[in-house]
Amino acid sequence: MRRSVLALGASIVMIAGACTSGSTPAPSTGGTTSAAPGGSAEASGASAAPSADLSAITGTAKLSGWQSSDAENKALQDTVTAFQAAYPNVKVDYKVITGDYPTVMATNFASKNVPDLFYVDASFGQPWADQGFLEPLDDYFTKYGFDTSAFFPGYLAPFKGSDGKTYGLPKDGNTIGMAYNTAEVQTAPTSLADLVTAATALKGKDGLKAPICLNPGLDRGLAFIYAQGGSIVSDDGKTNQVDTPQTKAAVQWYLDLFKNGIGMTASDMGDDWCGTSLGKKHAAIAFEGGWLDPAMSSTYPNVKYAWGQIPTGSSGSPVTISYTAAYSIGADSKDKDQAWVLLQFLAGKDGMTKWTSGGVALPSRTDVPTPTGKDILVAQAQFAKPGSGFMKGYGDVQKAFQDAFTKEIQDKTYNADSVIAATKTAVDAALAS
Amino acid sequence: MTIASARDRRVSTGIGQRSEALAAYAFIAIPMLLFLVLNIGSILYALFISVFQWNIRSGAGAFIGIANYQNVFKDPIFIRAIQNSVYYAIVWVPLTMAVGLFLAVLVNQKLRGRTFFRAAFYFPAIASSAAVTVLWIFLAQPDGLFNGIRGALGLNPIFQLFGFAPNQNWIGDSHTALNSVILLNAWTTSGTFMLFYLASLQTIPGEVYEAAAIDGAGSWQMFWRITFPLLKPGHYFVATVAVIGALQLFDQARIAGGTTGDPANALMSVVLYLYNLAFFKFDFDRAAAVGLILFAIILTLTLIQRRLFGSAPSW
Hints:
- The complex is a heterodimer of chains A (433) and B (315).
- Chain A is of the alpha/beta class.
- Chain A folds into 2 domains: 57-174 and 323-379, D-Maltodextrin-Binding Protein, domain 2 (3-Layer(aba) Sandwich); 177-319 and 392-432, Periplasmic binding protein-like II (D-Maltodextrin-Binding Protein, domain 2).
- Helices cover 40% and strands 12% of the residues of chain A.
- Chain A has helices at 2-20, 70-86, 101-111, 122-130, 138-144, 153-156, 192-202, 218-227, 245-259, 274-279, 292-299, 336-346, 349-356, 375-379, 394-410, 416-432; strands at 59-65, 90-96, 117-121, 169-175, 177-181, 212-213, 263-264, 285-288, 305-308, 321-329, 385-386.
- In chain A, the strands form 2 sheets. In chain A, strands 1, 2, 3, 4, 10 and 11 form a 6-stranded mixed β-sheet that branches. Chain A has a 5-stranded mixed β-sheet with strand order 7-6-8-5-9.
- In chain A, helix 8 crosses helix 9 (245-259) and helix 15 packs antiparallel against helix 16 (416-432).
- The model of chain A is unreliable at 1-8 and 10-49 (pLDDT under 50).
- Chain B is mainly α and 315 residues long.
- Chain B is built from 14 helices and 2 strands, in the order αββααααααααααααα.
- A two-stranded antiparallel ribbon of chain B has the order 1-2.
- The model of chain B has no long low-confidence stretch (mean pLDDT 90).
- The interface between A and B is large, with 39 and 37 residues.
């Protein structure tokens, strides 16, 4: 009998231990909020009359995001240090989220245990806003007189929810430009016709597996669709424009680059991405963003390359696509006001100047100085359109395009019709949802 | 007096047995409770989620009945995921079982260094699947070791007969990606199946082989007439574990093909599809429906296997 009591006791202790180990309440960050009207807002980026005093807000703001390099970590730590100097009443508790970011955040949203302020990739802006995970910021703009007009429009657009409210402020941004090996290409092609001519001249050169490294998807292909007057949806996001003659011609032009041996995917060159292809001199031209620079300087310092704008196509206008991520406040954040104090600094002029001076990111604001050597990529932000997050269900559209496009390349049929048909179906489904 | 002590002993023994039984139940209570909560409870909860519009933050919304199940079957990517998983199971399970059985029979012989070979064959199974997959991707890329070796051995003309270029992108090409992952997993898992078969081989009485030897049976006959049929319980166990594992393909597909099952859905498995629905689209109700469909498929196949292999042979 004693044994059974002992065993039952052991069972209860183990089960209780298992059940309670994850349920210890997290220590409260506390913090008091007393936003007295009539105070001053963070001056940078604020043009409207400030109506509340940020310095009266005290407490702690929990900040989280992904981290891709030590340099990025240092740049952020330096920016947070600058924030602490400007706003000593709000402490920052910064924790990097390692692993699969959306998966980790999903568990955080489910448990309503979210950081107060966190990174949101543009592709997740709308879905997370629509799911109710993010706090709308419009009331903060009004209350604290924060002006969003200083942001490049293409960077701000993905964080507008279906209800028209803003759910995040872009922490930085990148445009897709043309990186070319200056030993192979002396002058940057400025039109798509020049690009094809220059690339054709490079065909078969020693060491080059293809003149251009290309992605078989809209994550780069969309820039060329825009350049030739095509589109995926209308500007108001309501009409499918995949099957217009311009879009179809642009997709066929992109397929023909593969067909004629001018372009090849990084995967088919045996590389993980086009930066590696450029670095290993498997390709002479690649279409990438500012993230290419640290990769090249650290891994392929001897490869000389330069940046050019995306060549102009039949649309006649300069165009490219941009990528960004935002700082957003969690809808279930316990310290939203503290999060706002931190957010308005990080996305403000001073905070972003500090952040982008670290050399790992480009500014998403027009009033922040352009980092050295990034002139072209920053200048393109004036006319860049969002490369993701501009329509609901764009992830499915991208996948449909890429699957059909990849099949055309691998089957060596190079016909745009099936790509257009598959993409049109996906866009229709996305618009219907 | 004698009768009374015997009764006392019986009573005392009865109390002891009851005490032992209670202790046993108490110990069983832990895994049973965990099983009920984490397995049965999860299945029931998934069933509940799947019939509602579900938001992970606010919980159940409108009741939608079987709409999620219907919608899933209308999605061509889900159909492709089912096709891929079934193809994977049909090719990978027999292949890996055959290799595992071959290795088990090999290391069951009285060979020099057989302990080393047992460990060596099992080694890929204990290596991290992520690390092994990355290594495989490296070996199978266009200028990787595999293409290099076949080129050096002059085998390219033979491969070209089957349409494979000298710089074939084995994992990046939708025509070869899934078969490449099948080969990878056959390599990594055959060591585990070898161990299962090795354990089964120990249960076959040596007298049966002695009798067969006296009757003049050769090694080949002994294998097909004795070893293979008497391994029926082993086949059932290995096949069941293999089919369940095959239909739950995830990590290698996720690493080699990304979250979108690239290239062109060639590596889209049912579990990867479910994962995308849940964690990238936050469509947890539809993901729960997919999980239950997969559960139903696995349960059905397991019952069929039990019918085919379930009864142990008598000798």
